[in-house]
Amino acid sequence: MTTTAPTDVVSPSAAAPEASPRGRLKGTLVGLGIAVATLLAGLAVPYVVTDTYRMSLLVEGTLLSLLAIGIGFLARHLGLISLGHGAFFGAAAYGVGIATTNWGWSPTTAVGFGVVVGTGFAVVMGLLVVRSSGFGFLMLTLALSQALYALSVQTSARPLTGAHDGKLLSYDRDMTFLGLAQRDVMNPGLFWPMAWIALTMCATVLWLVGRSRFGTTLEGIRENEERMRFSGYDTFGPRLVAFVLSGAVASLGGALFAINSGYVSPDILGFTRAGDSLIAALVGGFGLLVGPIVGTFLFVYAQANFNFGGNLHLFTGMALILVLVFMPGGITGSLQKLYHRLRRGRR
Amino acid sequence: MNAAQLLNGIALGSLLMVLSSGLAMIYGLRGVANFAHGALYMSGAYIAYSVSDRAGFWLALLVVPLALAVVGVLLELVFFRPLQHRSHIELGLITFGLALMAERLVVLIWGERTLRVTPPEFLQGTSNFLGVEYPSYRLAIIAIAVVLAAALVLWLRSTTTGLHIRAASQDIETAAIMGINVDRVSLVVVAVGSALAGFAGALAAPYIALDPGMGSAFLITVLIIVVVGGIGSIGGAMIAGMGLGVIQSVTTVWSPSVAVVVPYLALTIVLLWRPTGLAGKRVS
Amino acid sequence: MKRRLLAATTAVTLSLTMAACGAASDSSGGDAEEGPIKIALIPPTSGALAQFGTDSVKGWETAVRLVNEDGGIDGREVELLVKGTDADPATTLRVAKEAVTQDGAQFIGSVMTSPEHGALNAQLEGLGALSFNSLGKDDALVGEQCSPYAVHVVQTTSMDVNALANSIAEMPGEKWAIQAVDYATGHSAAETFKAAAEKAGKEVVLEQFAPLNTTDFGSYITKLKNSGADAVFAVEFGADGVAFVQQADQFNLDDQLKTVLGLNMVSEPLFETLGESIVGYYNNVGYDAAADTEANKEFIEAYTEDHGSAPYYVPADAYAAAQILFAGIEEAGSSEPAEVAEALADLTVETNVGEVTVRGTDNQVLRDSYLGKVVKGDGGLAFEVVTNTSADVTTTESDPACKF
Amino acid sequence: MTIFEGRGLTVRYGAHVALDGVDIALEPGVVHGVIGPNGAGKSTFIDALSGRKRPSSGTVTFEGVDITRRSVRWRRRKGLSRSFQRTSVFGAMTVGDQLEMVARRNNEEDLGEIVRTLGLEGILDRVCAEIAYGTQRSVDLAIALIGRPKVVLLDEPCAGLVHDESVRMLQHVRDVCKERDVAALLVEHDVEGVFRTCDVITVLDLGKLLATGTPDDVRADENVIRAYLGSAA
Asked: How high is the pLDDT of residue B280?
C-alpha cells in the first residue's frame, strides 16, 4: 500500500502564484490587514447580537473552530486527516479543570497550563503517528485518542478527571480569568472577545506559517515525501512540528472551552466528538483556511436546530457522504471553483 | 488461573476473530478500513433479535449473513466500485458517514431499549467441558468460530476465487493486468466481509446485551486488531483477534481497569517495536 | 454590565472606541410576575434512557393538569415546555439556555443523568433558573456540585445504599460477593454495603469492579462462582445490568445463590427484557406504589387516567418534584426563581411519596427509601416493597462540601 | 580516481536474489551507463546505491568513506543525488517554488544556470502537474542537479519520452556531467542512447554483472552479445 492517490479533499487552492518577493510581502501585508479588520469587526458582535442564547452558540462555534482549523491545517499542508485532535482539545480542557479545581491555580494560569498539557499530548501522539500517512494516520490518531478516553474514565483517574461524572470547575470567587469572574466567563457576551481574539490570532498565525518557507517545506512533504528526503530534507521533524502546532491550536480551543462552560465531560474525548469536528471541517472544506470555520459554525447551527430526537448524526453522516461524493473540497472549495470558473468565463 | 477463565478468553477471542477477519478482507482489497463494520455487526445482532423472536435462533444464524451480504453488495456497487479511483481516505470517511447513519437507523427501527436474545433451548445453561462447568452457548460460539475460521482459510487457500482474492490483496493493479476480474473479486470480498460482520453480530446477540452503542464500542478494538495483525492480512487479524481476546479476558481477572487499556497498549507496542504489524505489512 | 463588557474587551485587546449600541447580552428569564409559570422539561429523547425521559414527562404532565384544573397557582396557569436532549451535557446545557433565555422558562425538570445535572448546576445561578432533579442520583450533586438553584428530589445513591444496608438482615445469605461498576457510585456503594454487612455478622468473600460499558461479564461471573458466595450485591446499570443478569443466567450462577441484591440494576422498564429469571431478585425501590395515602391514591388515579398505565418511580418522582415546586411558589408568593428557592428551604410538603422536607443546607428532599423484591403478579413482574427506611437513617447530615 | 563505489552489492527478497554481488566505480566527469534486459536488477541496483533499499550485503563508499548505512538525506547533503524512473516532482507546486525550495536546502548559488541549461525559464510560474510530461522530466533532472552534487544517479531519465526529447535529454546529461565534473550513473532502457552518451558501460543480467568497459569493449563482449544484444539485434 504505497500508492498515494491524489486526494480531492485536500487539493490545494489554485491560488495565483506570487513570483516576486515583493508581491509576497504585499500579499502578507494585505492578509494581515484583513486579519486586523476581521478582529475589530468581530469585537462588535455582542453589541449586535444581544440575545444570550444566540451569543452562546457563536462562542461555541468560535471555540470549536479552533479545533477545526487545527485539523484543517494538517489536512491542507500535509494532506494528513486526523481523527485524534479531539484528544488535545479534551486534554487541555481537563488540564484547566485540574489546575483550577485540584490545585487552586488562577484560571488564567490554568488556561496556559491546559494548552501546555494539550500540546504535550500532541508531541507524544505525534512521535507515534507522523511516520504513517493516509489511512494509517487516520486510524492511528483515532485509536490513540480513544486510548486517552479510556484512561480518562478510569477510576484511578477519578481524583483528576472525575471519570464518567466529568469535572466541574471551581475556583475562588475573587479569582478571575483575564478580569472575568467565574460567573462572567459563562456569560457569552462577556467571554466573546477572548474567544474571537484567540480564533483570529490562531488563524493568522497558521496562515503566516503556511506562507513561510516552513510552509513550503510542508507542501513539498505533502506532495512527495520521498523526493523531499532525496532532496536533503528531513521529513519527520517538519511533520512533527506541524502536528504539534495544530495540536496546540486545538488545545487553546479546549482550554477556553473548559473555562467558558465551567464543566468538562468525558464526551469531549469521545469517538463522536472527534468525528463531529472532522466532519464539520471537511464539509466546510480544507482548501481554504476559513473552510473549517465555516463548517463548524454550520455544524453548531445544525446542532441547535436539527437535533430532534437525537437524529443529528443521521444528518451529519448524510452531509459527510454527500459532500465527499458530490463536492470534494467542501463548501468553500466549491465556491472557489465556481468563482474561478466565472472569472475564466469572463476573460 | 483456571480453565473456565481461559475459555472466557477464547470465547471473546472467537467473536473478535470472526469480526476482524471480515474487516481485514475488505481492507486488504480496497485499501479502506470499513468504519461501518461496527454498524454492520450491530445490524446483524438486531436483525438476529427480530428473526429469532419469530422464527428461532438457528434461522437467524442463516438469514443474518445473507441479509448483510446483500448490504455488502450494495456497499460495493454504490460506493466502493464507483469511487475506487478516489483516495482511500475519502472512501474511508464515507464509510464513517455510513456508520453514523446506520447507528441512528438501527435506533429508529428497533428503539433505544436494551434488548436480549435467548439462545436455543439446548444451549441454555451449562455443560461439562474438560471437567469445567461452562455455559453451553459459549462453547457453541467457540466451536462455530473455529469451524468458520478453518473454512475461510481453506477457501482462500484452495479455491480459484481464494487465489484471486489473495493475488488482488497483494497488488490490485497487477492482479488486474494478469487478467483477474478485480470487480468480481471485490464484490465477493465485500459481500463476504459484511456477511462475516453480520454473522459475528448474530453470534454475539445471545452473548451480550444489545444496545445502540455496541457497534462503535467494538469498532475501535477491531480496527486495532487489524493494525496489530498487519494491515490486510486475514491470518494476522485472526491471530491478533484471538490473542487480544484471551489477553484481555485474562487481564480482567487480574485487573479490570488495566484490561480496558490492553488494546491500546498492544497497538502502541506494535507501533514502536514492529510498525508493520504481526504479518509484516506496513501501515502506510 | 455594559461597563464590564467594555472593561473585558479593553483589558485584552487594543483600546477601542466603540459605540455601545443596543443592550449587551444579559437577559435572564421572562417576566416572572405575570403570565403563565413556565417549566422547561429536558428529558433524553434518544439513547438508552429515552424511555425514562418520556415517563418523567408524563409525571409532570399529570401534575400540571391537576393544578391547572384547580385554577393554577395563585390564579396563574402553569405551562410545560417539553424539549429534548441526547443526554450529552453540552446539548442539555444548550437546550436549557435556549429555554430560559428564549422561551422565558423559570424552572427546569426531567433532566436525566448526573453529568447533565453537574453541568447544569454550574450554570443555574448565572441563568437564574431553578432546577428540579428527580432522576440524577449522584451524591456529588448535593456535595461539591450542589447549587442553591437545584432541588434534589430523588434519593441520592448513598441514601439508597444506606437503606439496603439497613435491611441486610432481611435477606438470606451469609457469604456475600460484591459486583459493582467501576464508577464512583459503585465504589461508594460497595464500601457502605461492606461495612453494613460486616456489622450484621455477614462475610464479604469477594469485591470486584467492572468498567462501565462492560459487555462480557464471563471473567467476573467465573470469579463469583469460584468464590463460594451464596449472595451477591450487584451495582450494574443499563446495558451492563442486562448483560450481567443474562450472562449470570447462562452460567447458572443463580443455582448457588440465595439472594441477588441489585442497586439500580432492576427497574420496571427492564422487566420485559430481563424476563422471569429475575423473579426473587431484590433491588432498591424509590417509590412505594402501594403506599396508602390520600396524595398517592390521587396521583395513581390521575396518572392511570392520563396515560393508561400504572406509574413507577420515574413518573412518581417527577410528580413529587412538581408538587414541591408548586408548594414553593405558593409559599414565596412569587415565581421568581430566587425567591422560590429561598421559600423552599426547610419547607415541608405533602406529596405522593409521603410527607417530605427540603433540607435547607443542600436542597436534598428528605424522604423514605425502600427495599423491593421482584414478584410475579397478574400483570407480569412487579416490585413488592419489603422494608422502608426513613431519611433520618439514610442521610443524617448534608455534605460539608456543599456551600450555598 | 574513483569517487563513488559499490562493492559486492547483494539484495535479497526472501529467497529471491534480485542483485548478486555487483561491483561498480564512478569517476568525476565520466558518464557511466548501466543497461540490461527487464528483470536484470537495474532498479534494485540504483536503489541499493542510493540508499533507498538497504543491501543485504556489500558496501557503498563515497570519497573513501563507507556510507552503506547512511540515510538518503545525509547522502544528499554530502553531494550524492538521484532521480527517479517514475517522474518524481512536486505536482501541486509551481516549478519555480519547488526548485527554490530544493536550492535553499542544498545551498545552490546559481539556480539560474540550471534553469537555463535545461530550458525551464518560461515555465517557472506554472504548476508542475499541469506542464507537459517531457518538461516534467527536465524538472525532475533539475531537482537532482541542484546544489552541485558530486555524484548523480539517474534512473531512466528518458522513460516515456519520444525520440527527439530522449536525444536532447541525454545530451543535457552529458553536457552537465562534463561541465560540472560530476560522476554520473545512467540507468537506461534505451540501449542506443547509452552507447552514444556514456564513457563506460556496465551490463547486468539476472542480478549479476555481465561486463564492464568502454562502449566498444562491451559491444564486442561475447557474453553480452549472447545474453542481451544478440536477442535485441
From this structure: 54
**pLDDT tens-digit series, residues B14-44:** 999 999 999 998 888 888 888 999 999 999 9
Q: Position of cell 468563482?
A: A339
The beta-carbon neighbor of A220 closest among D50, D77, D101 is D101
Q: Tell me the nearest-neighbour CA distance from C22 into chain B, angstroms.
A: 42
Per the domain annotation, does A21 fall within a domain? no
Full domain range(s) for residue A57: 33-346
Q: Coil, strand or helix: which one is C100? A: helix
**Which pLDDT belongs to residue C10?**
44
- As assigned by CATH, the class of the D4-86+150-232 domain is alpha beta
B10 touches chain C (CB under 8 A): no
In chain A, whose CA is at the least distance from the CA of B223?
Answer: A139
The answer to whether residue A92 is domain-embedded is: yes
b/e string for A214-244 if b means 16 or more Cβ within 10 A?
Answer: bbbbbbbbbbbbebbbbbbbebeebbbbbbb
Sequence ranges of the domains in chain D: 4-86+150-232
Q: Hey, of C85, C236, C246, which one would you mutate to test binding to chain B, going by the most B CBs within 10 A of its CB?
A: C246
Question: Which residues, including other chains, have CB under 8 Å from residue C346's CB and lie 6 or more apart?
Answer: C357, C358, C359, C360
> What residues in C contact A180, CB-CB < 8 Å?
8
Residues of chain A contacting residue B268, judged by C-beta atoms under 8 Å apart: 128, 144, 147
Cell 533499499 belongs to D53
Interface B-C, measured as beta-carbon pairs within 8 A, has a size of 100
Is residue A175 within 8 A of residue A257, CB to CB? The reply is: no
Count of domains forming chain A: 1
- How much is the ipTM here? 0.83
pLDDT at res. D118: 87
Contacts of residue B68, Cβ cutoff 8 Å, sequence gap at least 6:
B40, B43, B44, B47, B194, B195, B197, B198, B199, B201
Pairing outcome for strands C365-366 and C354-358: antiparallel
The count of CB pairs under 8 A between chains A and C is: 153
pLDDT tens-digit series, residues A250-300:
999 999 999 998 888 888 888 777 788 999 999 999 988 899 999 999 999
Q: Burial of A260 by CB count in 10 Å (0-12 exposed, 13-18 middle, 19+ buried)? A: buried
Is A303 inside a domain boundary? yes
CA dist., res. C9 & res. D61, Å (int): 65
For residue B133, what is the nearest residue in chain C, using CA coordinates?
C251
Q: Does B14 touch chain C (CB under 8 A)?
A: no
- Measure A145 CA to nearest chain C CA, in Å: 18
Q: What is the DSSP string of C309-321?
A: S---HHHHHHHHH
> Which among C220, C243, C251 has CB closest to B209?
C243
Please indicate whether, in this complex, the C-beta atoms of D88 and A234 are within 8 angstroms of each other: no
DSSP code, position A180: B
Cell matching residue C83 = 424539549
CA distances (Å), origin D136, targets D46, D50, D96: 21, 22, 12
Q: What is the pTM of this model?
A: 0.86
Domain of A122: which CATH number?
1.10.3470
Instruction: Give one DSSP letter per residue of C148-192, joined into a string.
Output: TTEEE-SPPHHHHHHHHHHTGGGS--SEEEEEEESSHHHHHHHHH
Beta strand ranges found along A181-321 (DSSP E): 263-264
Q: What is the pLDDT of residues A156-182, one digit of tens each?
A: 888 888 877 778 888 877 888 888 887
Q: Which of B88, B98, B282 to mutate to test the interface with A (most CBs of A within 10 A)?
A: B88
Pairwise CB contact (< 8 Å): C273 & B116: yes
Interface mutation target, options A9, A211, A231, chain D, most CBs of D under 10 Å: A231
Q: Could you tell me if residue A19 is inside a domain?
A: no
Of C222, C250, C269, the CB nearest to B137: C250
DSSP SS3 for B96:
helix
CATH class of C159-285: alpha beta
Q: Looking at the domain covering C37-155+291-367, what would its CATH class be?
A: alpha beta
